[in-house]
Amino acid sequence: MDSEALRKYSALHPKPAGLTLQYGTAGFRTKAEQLDHIVFRMGLLAVLRSKAVAATIGIMVTASHNPEEDNGVKLVDPLGEMLHPSWEEYATQLANAEEQELQKVITEICQKAAVNLHKDASVFIGRDTRPSSKKLSQSVIDGIQVLGGQYHDYGLVTTPQLHYMVCCQNTQGQYGKATLEGYYEKLSKAFMELIKQSHCSGESQRHLKIDCANGIGALKLSEMKPYFPQEVLIHIYNDGTKEKLNHLCGADFVKVHQKPPGGLDMKPNERCCSFDGDADRIVYYYKDTAGHFHLIDGDKIATLISIFLKDLLAKVKQDFKMAVVQTAYANGNSTRYLQETLKVPVHCVKTGVKHLHHKAQEFDVGVYFEANGHGTVLFSKAAETKIRQLVKEENDDERREAAKMLENVMNLINQTVGDAVSDMLVIEAILALKGLTVQQWDALYTDLPNRLLKVQVADRRVIDTTDAERRALTPPGLQEKIDTLVKKYKLSRAFVRPSGTEDVVRIYAEADTQENADALAHEVSLAVFHLAGGKGAPPQPI
Ligand SMILES: CC(=O)N[C@H]1[C@@H](OP(=O)(O)O)O[C@H](CO)[C@@H](O)[C@@H]1O
Ligand SMILES: [Mg+2]
């Protein structure tokens, strides 16, 4: 380690005195002006991680659905997964080290994680369209270079594109070519092969309106357009040329407010969808002839994909284990539908993609989605091998055809992480293959009315949870109070947890009517306010 260079460069990326940040659910996330030292140091950490695992590591500069003024950074592990939890702690230590301690902390990490500094290191970098992202990714490069790492800067890419690149690189191209062209070619080829298998005579032209949250999704979809078949007509809205990133639009806005985004004119029964700011989430929606808005969230996406896959798995007649992984935010009726009607096992894990991804890896076919629209499907190595073999060798036409469809889905879905573009193509293909309209899809089950609220408290760590965050252990009395409140309503459920990305406590409630869901959410938020050290004025009724 060149101590002199480290000192010199870290002085160029000084840590504001007293600032401490934590590597949370989605890496570091805060106001962009507080992040320069963090991204520089994450450049350092990426080099250490790369040396430790002898593979290429990714760094993405983005704050996803958060306001344009924010930014963030997260590391991507060799197969495109989120950074291993054991390293999140190193990330936090390095981020919060005072300038003069930096070298000591690096040495400590090297000792604890058995990093050999003489090994090579390689890092892939990507960034979103935020005005601050370019400069921050320059600081990442400074960090990488100080520790002698090699890097490739992909510039503007969606978060899932960067995950894809890292996986391609570390599988020596087995997962695909580590270029944007490779990504577009892989996805569009799989999509075309898949819809070719459609025997439906339904509409031949497929229109889809896409709200790109004024973010990177618009740029990348435009680049990809020439690769799409002619029948697919995508119309891009909120492309970032006029309005601010994520402002009154995007997947998070639509999900949280349960209303359409600004900037997209929606005619009755038109199929529309929204990406988030870094294009790793997607939700669908439409307006009926009476003008009512219908949201089709991550739970319903998981359901559609599960129906499709379950049917194919039955046709290939293999004993593949399939399951759906959700979080506590999944709508109660989605869980009921999956378990009782579709008869697919459902597992609930803690919020955050890494938890869902990890659980889904336990199955041959693991479908995971957060209600907010982040999700994908994972296929085990054994299932993948078997499916590819059936495509080549199976004599039975129906079985071979089903295996071929599964193979195409495997190629189309981004198995490294939730990917709005890839998910959208999977969904469009399934709707085409099944001849389903957006209304028919929506009608699979009816969402229980629900409400998501947040409350500010002095220290959100006073809330500790258990049972995949569905019950609060502390502060004393809170869970008992929630239990009492829940009993007042029908089909009701409520839980609270500290957010991993914002300084708030989140409250979720569902019940038989919207009024009851709103009332329950409000009452629970008051309980949090009073028992967990609420800040400012008490929450007002909705
Ligand atoms: C209720 C909700 O949507 N929570 C989101 C949000 O996490 P919080 O820990 O709730 O702030 O951001 C995470 C990262 O994007 C995402 O994984 C998660 O689903
Ligand atoms: Mg995102």
Entry summary:
By secondary structure, the protein is α/β, with parallel strands linked by helices. The chain has helices at 3-12, 36-53, 85-96, 102-112, 133-146, 159-170, 180-196, 216-224, 251-257, 298-316, 332-341, 353-360, 381-393, 397-412, 420-434, 438-442, 478-487, 514-531, and strands spanning 28-31, 56-61, 70-76, 122-127, 150-156, 206-211, 232-237, 272-275, 282-287, 293-296, 322-327, 346-349, 365-369, 375-379, 450-455, 464-466, 471-474, 493-498, 505-510. The mean pLDDT is 96.
How would you describe this protein?
By secondary structure, the chain is an alpha/beta fold. It has four domains: 3-156, Alpha-D-Glucose-1,6-Bisphosphate, Chain A, domain 3; 184-294, Alpha-D-Glucose-1,6-Bisphosphate, Chain A, domain 3; 298-418, 3-Layer(aba) Sandwich (Alpha-D-Glucose-1,6-Bisphosphate, Chain A, domain 3); 450-531, Alpha-D-phosphohexomutase, C-terminal domain (TATA-Binding Protein). Helix content is 41%, strand content 19%. The chain has 18 helices and 19 strands. The chain has a five-stranded mixed β-sheet with strand order 1-3-2-4-5, with helices on both faces. Strands 7-6-8-9-10 form a five-stranded mixed β-sheet, sandwiched between helices. Strands 12-11-13-14 form a four-stranded mixed β-sheet, sandwiched between helices. A hairpin with an 8-residue loop joins strand 2 (56-61) and strand 3. Helix 10 (298-316) packs across helix 15 (420-434). It starts with a helix and ends in an 11-residue tail after the last helix. The mean pLDDT is 96. It binds 2-acetamido-2-deoxy-1-O-phosphono-alpha-D-glucopyranose and magnesium ion. 2-acetamido-2-deoxy-1-O-phosphono-alpha-D-glucopyranose (GN1) binds next to loops.
